[in-house]
Amino acid sequence: MTTTEIGSLLRTAEQAALAAGRYLARHHRSGASTRVKGLPHDVVTDADARAEAMIRETLTAAHPASEVVGEESGRSGSGEVTWYVDPIDGTHNFARGLGLFAVSVGVHLGGQPVAGVVYEPFGEELFTAADGTLLVNGAAPARRAPDPLPVVLTDIPTAGLRDPAEYALFADLNDTTDLRRIGSSALALAYVAGGRADLAANADVFAWDVAAGRALVTAAGGGFTGVPDEPGTERRGGFVAWGPGFDRHGARLAEAMGAISHLAVSAPR
Ligand code: IPD
Ligand code: CA
Ligand code: CA
After folding, report:
1. Beta strands of the chain (E only): which ranges?
2. Does the keyword Metal-binding belong to this entry (predicted)?
């Protein structure tokens, strides 16, 4: 596929994310009621399903021979292009009226990430990446000098698991970095890509949480690794991402996450 064709996939993903994000902005703070999906922390609202349906419609109308993998309604279609869709990443924030949520659309071609869009409707910020170019609202983000105290965005320790390795990692990061728990992996990755944070890591994600954000981070010259391997659609996994200049921090964090028992290759997730 040529650069122009990848550009056309990106434009479709942007269009889908913007339309869904505008719909969510209208429903934000309107008292969305949540339902629990698994653990009490894993919630969903009616807006999740509606936003995903809107995104699916836009993607498949523009590219009928493609596959969509969405958090709310699973897998449909087939083709060389796969769209990984999280209609609201940070659903609990959305439902509580907090602004930290985003629409996330990642594009894979032949199984490889090639583009991604993360749209944050509250601040109206559109993060896009394709062909090694990261843009925020259409412009290259300003780069800042590295901060001696790295800012780390993580939801570790994962609620409900009480994994001693996650608590030990949290304590260590809390002493050596400036930690934030923002509750949205897609936004955490977008913020690392945009240079607002230096590292992001989570131990409880699926492919749709990270497919777009990882494209943003790598386009920005940073790195991304799955722990123990690429987060999939069947088992929860982990990831570490880092901005340019934070490779050693990223490698150390990924190694430390190797001790988290539910992320072990043989563990049920
Ligand atoms: C959640 C976010 C969060 C991660 C959770 C996910 P959701 O997604 O990505 O960062 O820690 O495990 O479930 O449920 O708000 O789409
Ligand atoms: Ca999510
Ligand atoms: Ca979601």
Report:
1. 35-36, 43-44, 66-70, 74-77, 81-89, 102-109, 112-120, 125-130, 133-136, 151-154, 178-180, 199-205, 223-227, 237-242
2. yes
